Amino acid sequence: MLKRGKFWLLLGRIALAVIFLAAGIAKLREPWLQFAVSINSFKIVPDAMLEPIARILPWFEVVVGVAVLSGIQLKWTSSLATVILGGFLALLIRSWAMGIEVDCGCFGSGEPLGPQVILRDSLMLVLSLAVTIGAFMTSRKKSLSSETSPQV
Amino acid sequence: MVAQNTPAAAKKTPVTVTKAAAPAAVKNFKLSGSPAATITIEVYTDYECPSCRNLYLQTLPELITQYVAKGKVQLLHRDFPLPQHQYSKIATRYANAAGQLGQYDIVANQLFKTQAEWSQNGNVDGTVAKVVAPGDLQKIRDLVKNDTHLDDTVTTDVAMANKDGLNQTPTLVVVNKGKRQKIDGFVPFMILKSYIDQQLAKN
Question: What is the pLDDT of residue A111?
Answer without folding.
Answer: 76
